[in-house]
Amino acid sequence: MVNKMKPATAHYLILGSFCLAFYSGCTSYKFLESEHHPRTWKKLFLVHHWPVTVCKMSENDCKDPPQYWTIHGLWPDKVDECNRTWHFNVTEIKDLLPDMRHYWPDILHSSPNRTQFWKHEWEKHGTCAATVEPLNSQKKYFGRTLDLYQKLDLNSCLLKVGIKPSSTYYQMTAIKEALTSVYGVTPKVQCLPPEEMQR
């Protein structure tokens, strides 16, 4: 997870943790079914990834990745690509861009605008999350995800329990137990090979 990984066995890591956020003060988000857009998913996952590992597993031009957990996405379970006609438009989130670049960076694409990752996440996951009113626009989807990320504060949580980026290896059970003690639920920690990175 946060440990330094051996090149031959390194895997891309994500932490699915929306339920952690939901049980730690985010219950003000009421995800109700709309009459016009019945919800087909039951829960959302706020997914983090460790940028340094992502860079090591990619052949793209990945320079100076952040040394902290960043957002991968907010994913409804069991559905994706719910509305193929609702295309990403970066102008709808222009006031969020400073936070997007910091907390949700596109570290794999070197284009000046760096919006390809956000486009992917919106079109695959955001259009499904948008079936509920609190997430029913690009600004709401990305804005609420940023809010949840900051409320969850995974980076500070791990540091508080002594888990930090270093050459030290950590047991997966120690990481899960530490997060469970803070958030009150068991997190899902998953290792993915490089070919599965674009979820």
Distance between the termini: 18 Å
From the helix content, strand content and strand pairing, which structural class follows?
Answer: alpha+beta
- Provide a count of the helices: 7
Uncertain segments are 1-37
CATH superfamily: Ribonuclease T2-like
State the total count of DSSP E strands: 4
Strand content: 5-15%
Q: Evaluate the radius of gyration.
A: 17 Å
What integer is the average pLDDT? 76
Major sheet strand order = 3-2-1-4
| CATH topology category name | Ribonuclease Rh, Chain A
What would you say about this model in short?
With 199 residues, this protein is an alpha+beta fold. 33% of the residues lie in helices and 12% in strands.
Describe what you observe in this structure.
With 199 residues, the protein is an alpha+beta fold. The chain has a single domain (12-196), classed as Alpha-Beta Complex (Ribonuclease Rh, Chain A). It is built from seven helices and four strands, in the order βαβαβαααααβ. Strands 3-2-1-4 form a four-stranded antiparallel beta sheet. It is globular.
